[in-house]
User: Fold these one by one.
Assistant:
Number 1:
Amino acid sequence: MNEDGFNIYDDRKKKVFGFICDEDYKPMRLKDIALIMQVPREEMYILSDIVSELEKEGKIVLTKKGKIASAESLDQYAGEFRGTGRGFGFVSAEGMAEDVFIPANATNGAMHRDKVIFRIVSRNGRHAEGEIMKVLSHGVRHIVGTYQRVKSFGFVVPDDKKFCDDIYIPSGCSMGAVDGHKVLVSITKPPEKKNNPEGRVTEILGHINDPGVDILSIIMQYDLPLEFSEKVMQYTQLIPESISAEDMADREDFRKTPMVTIDGEDAKDLDDAVSVERLENGNYRLGVYIADVSHYVKERSPLDKEAHKRGTSVYLVDRVIPMLPHRLSNGICSLNAGEDRLCLCCIMDIDAKGDVIAHDIKKAVINVDRRMSYTVVNDLLTNEGSEYKDEYAELLPMFKDMEALRNILLNKRKKRGAIDFESEEAKIILDDEGKPVDIVKRESNVATSIIEEFMIAANETVAEHFYWLEIPFVYRTHDTPDEEKYEKLRLLVSPLGYALKGNSKHPKSYQQLLEQAKGTPEEMLIHRLALRSMKQARYTAESGRHFGLASEYYCHFTSPIRRYPDLQIHRIISEYLAGTLDESRMEHYKKILPDTAALCSANERRAEEAERDTDKYKIAEFMQHKVGEEFEGFVSGITAWGIYVELPNTVEGMISLRDTEDTFTLDEEKMCCTFEHTGRSYTIGDSVKVKLVNVSLESRTIDFEFAE
């Protein structure tokens, strides 16, 4: 079916669903719907297909009498089930502000990430409890786990603890796996009452102790695509390795403009270059030049379909899983110094207040002067006796202008209330065999801040420009925090001596809190608590405010090599600049962008979870040889099952409250735990001395006990 055929089918589907959802609609059979909607006999099969599809999507329900009703009219909803290791779970549904709690006895065989139909059983304010009515589809193609043989059969213990049951592997379904093998399992029978789910081993990844199997297991767990297909690689071979005169036609030539890339030392995909010029009137002209990836990745090409499916590059502790093949990301699309490259650029004139008083977005050809690193630029700007002064003497005045402009932009953002979170990410140092040898905090400096401010300025300028043109676009939206979570944050920081002023509607209240904590021992704790109270940023087809940046308009324009939303809007911008964005193309983008934004948001979350899991595994591996040692740390969280303690290098472990012999009183709201016999009271932020008692690589957990 061609695109027009799909559009006609989609239009009919919307009409049928709209008819069923109408407030005057009464549940009726398929033939009655056909009669009222005047569906010709020869098109009954289309109506039948549409109804079947709507039922599979959980939007309609077939009653016991064979009548069709909307799921919502029966107080039933479609959503995704998220399991927990303790059997209960939550369902998130479109349009619901809060997740619905599903008790362990009401899951009806649903497993983690299954798409389900559920109904609301009870409500308590904003909190609702429900039960699963039906599993529509399984959300996980395969589960990764460790095989354990028992006589002639076996079990697989899932790596992802959101799957609470071990998977029973009948005789003859193990592919010859032995104890300790990491395997992929497909589910052949879901859990029923007291019976475990059944499965079949489909692939053996290797033994748990084999080098590389640890990270490979996590890659498979998150279903991350490792290799590019032969079809994609063949298409990639058609892309030239250098640009031609024809490629440069109708582009502004910036090859004489002094510009640099500034990245980490190990970066290979350089997708942004910058230039700064001080104008005669005292203003600054900032140029942000972004690789024109859309010139090579054409819509609906095998390369585009693969990039759309991946959504983002994934940065794991020991490797990068790229969105695009290296021939592009490290080759023709990388802004390598001394080579002509195609770009989309945003040129901004910025005054002393940080306001963009003029801007231009255009296609360009550039040639980067030097490939700089954050380390070198930072040293040039902060060290009078820098060893790099002579080598970069010609560029040093521009770097100083960059720093001055960065200060102006940063001050402007602070005045409007933008929240600046200090990075507390762990950088895990691996040896040649992939074993962790050290854990340090990632440091930010003036050079990283320069690039951050310049990219934010470009993203805001591009987003606002295309918003006012009323062109279909992909925006980066960060919603206002929930009032309930905001109030919980206020309760948590109060015992630490901090006041959260104002309300949740304005980021200034967060900014002031972080300013209070700056330079104190609990600074990073306050940062983490503030982050936990916020919503997650996402991609949307409608413009929405970015709360954290205090931006009215925001998008991701600056990383098309590694993020599909950036590539998508580059394609739209290029069509607009070329004058080919006509009504039909506008309609095309209006239809595809909501789904594209949703998929990109989901893939971003998947990548973040995989990155977090690989970090957790390597941190646990680093700590497993330190069992018995004592450490200084601080209380980072208190829950019903344990007191969490974080060490200075960001390693976090838990002191179990289930194993304690002392009686204790717990106040989860204020995160305070008091022990009766010792009289000791612990609250969030307290300095403590702990002893490492256990490390589990399988569950990626670290267990402490108090050393006092």
Number 2:
Amino acid sequence: MENISNTINEKKEKLWDFLISPDYKNYMTRDELRIYVQVKPEEDMLFDCVIDELTDEGRLFLSKKKKLVPYKKLGYHMGELRTHENGFGFVRCDDMDEDVHIRKADLHGAVHKDRVIISITSESPKGISGVVKKIVSRGLESITGTYRTVGGIPCVIPDDARIFRKIKLSKKECRGMEEDSKVVVKITRPPGKSRIPMGKITEVLGLKSDVGADISSIVAGLGIPHEFFDKVKKQVRKIPLNIDGENLNDREDFRNVMTVTIDGEDAKDLDDAVSCRRMENGHYELGVYIADVSHYVKADTPIDKEAYKRGTSVYLPDRVIPMLPEILSNGICSLNEGQDRLALCCIMEINAKGSIKKHRIVKGVINVNKRMTYDKVNDVLENDCSVHRDEYAEFMPMLGIMKELRDILFDKREARGSVSFEFQESGVTLDDRGKPLEIVIRQRNTATSIIEEFMLAANETVAESYFWLEIPFIYRSHEEPEREKYDMLKKTVGKMGYVLRGYRKNPKNLQKLLKDVRGKDEELMISRLALRSMQQARYTSECLGHYGLSAKYYCHFTSPIRRYPDLFIHRIISLCIEGHSVGELISQYGAEAVEKAKGCSIKERRAEDAEREALLLKKTEYMADKVGEAFNGIISSITSWGIFVQLENTVEGMVSYKDMTDDIYEYDEESMSCMGVHTHRTYVIGSRVRVILERADTNTKRLDFVFCGGKTDGNNL
């Protein structure tokens, strides 16, 4: 079956290339095309399958005269629909930079995340509008929501208000269901122009009031696997929990080297340890030791397949969904203090300018001397009177050398143009019932920076080393900004009195801009605009470089417990160390590297969506009992429908124009500001304001603010 499928796909893409080429000028019927491309009698059925698939996928349209017309030659575009809770939507087209606005009346049954074919109906300076011509595929097979009876009819109200208002269920199948249950429902009948969608409940997550049901709903809605099945559990039980019986002859022994782990207080999956010393020639020897997960998780085993299915661990306010079973991630793979552990080791000799003069990548065995935490390490390095100095006394000389090397590596990275954004990160602490107690601002400090610089050095070294071997690999790529977005950023900041130099491929230009605005009122605005102008980092089988880090070679090597790309390249690195040939590796992993890189990028986005949605939910819950209170904030964004304000605790909400009753406000897209028609009061990004929380809706995760009185100049603090 797989061979037949591959043949159809191969023939389909070959035929499609012809259909969209200039050679296909006079459109043909199916039979005319069959004759033209000289289909053999024994391939008739295959040809019909190819045409049927191209038609079903929306790539081919039939004219009134039954002619086969590629959608591109009709001026149509394909892309993914993203709808708004008010009913309209936007399509991000595969071949266009700008999103296309779709009115509610022009959706023609398409819903959130559907893949659609559209035609353009109008273009103006305000934007592009279009209409859905065909639904290529449904993006949502299952969704999560709350079970309710509405007018005697059992329904599910989707968690995501952008999807549709409700899904009708069978009364027979809902007998005994409790009101306000959180459920997963499979769509059995999609919506029509005047037809409510129907579905079937496939999983009950618990009552809405149950502890953790809200976040479980987010996880299920994104299709994130969260349970390990019996095949995985059975395999895990066969893995030894210690390395006493291991043959270590092929490994370098680092157990006599002073090594430490430095992580957060609550971290349990410790996948990186470090050592650092000053050499006799004045250089530094930096050792980065990474858990050898690939020794335990072999390719194509149940554990490996499940790890790839997850792609990454997911860190949520009330739980962690691990990529690997905890007996591995917190046990035999974790570099726990005082226990022998297998590792892949990158040992680097670095000079006083931060250049790596020599390196070696080997399989090793280590025994960590001390499990340290960021807060304690930072305290002993920055505070001469630290209460932790006695505990860390034995390690103080090494920590001092680490700080020296950190400064050297950081300065070198800065000098070559690495781009740093100064956005605040935050988390939420919960009680045992899942109620948010506090929003915590995450502080970066010397200790976190030490580990960050050391891991960056190892990632770059490994990437460059294996790039030159010309073997299959997965790289972490971040390409330069697209020309149009870079030019728009240059134009926008120019109107504000700042200069962004012309060559977009040199990150030093962007770095200088961010340094110029640091500490200014415009910093938040320009930083956000700069971030939006940049492309998204992704995994690739080609080494495309990392623009943000200004690195020519870069990969993810240092977290195989929680990231599948790291595990994948560990497997290849181990085979190289063992002496496998380039030809063997290309044959075994060439095609797989392409597939796994793409798949891991998709799963990374999914995990980010879950983490963002869960954090937003808990932040909204935290603010829910503060309605009516006033807060200081800063305008973080201005759109055609309202002004977004970020509070000092990082929570963000919106002031709607309809609630600004002192004047009629007009939005200026070019300057991203709004101004009162009569009073000329102007609001711009970066202005400090004072707002009152008017509404906190945990269902939509939305906060609504109104400005306090006395607003005259865009700064009413």
